[in-house]
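[job 0412] stage=complex_fold ligand=zinc ion status=START
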Amino acid sequence: MDAPSIPRSVMVIAAHPDDIEFGCAGTCAKWARAGAQVVYVLVTSGDIGTHDRAHTRESLAALREEEQRAAAAICGVQTVIFLRYPDGEVTPSLALRKDLIRLIRTHRPEVVIALDPRRFIASDDYINHPDHRAVGTATLDAIAPAAAMPLLYPELGEPHRVREVWIQWAEDANVWIDISETLELKLEALRAHRSQIDESTIERVRRRAYEAGRGLCPAEAFRVIRLVREPAPNEDSPSARM
Ligand SMILES: [Zn+2]
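[job 0412] stage=complex_fold status=DONE, emitting structure tokens
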């Protein structure tokens, strides 16, 4: 696949606070530095993500939203939207699909970064979280074709065609983004999730970034689907190339 241009507008749709930092925050920080408008959408606020009995769901959600906003700001992302679906119970419902269509039609991103709905038994020691799969399915179903169809849910806004979908945590990646200049920001953003992350996790993520870049540079890997083929108005400008 050709080297991708830097998009002008990006929406990342994730299930839980910290999914973005594990998956694509290095790329988001790089694009934000280059002038892209980046919006994070969190379907849940991670409100069951603890073994600490001192928390309630409400107190944990408030803490994790604060951590997510701090993580976004570290990467230059100012807009974070929380849909506040209950953590651990997300399904790819029509209600969620419609919420995502509304956001896509409102913010009109060129690129949407999505979770991978196909990832189930992810490795020898990890079953992918059902919320990740559900949010991935709802995201792709919202993008194609729903958000672009004028007769479908006209009350949710003007139709919008997303140019590219970038799927994080995909096993069949076809694009790798060099995050040499933003790896430390990605790790700092991960550290912002203080209720979730320890230093051994940080080191694991650093190691995996170099593995993704085949030892040459730290990288994030994506399966990119180009839904709209015609170039964006600024796509031929050399400065818009990676
Ligand atoms: Zn998650």
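The pocket of zinc ion is lined by residues 15-16, 19, 129, 132 (CB under 6 Å).
[job 0412] exit 0
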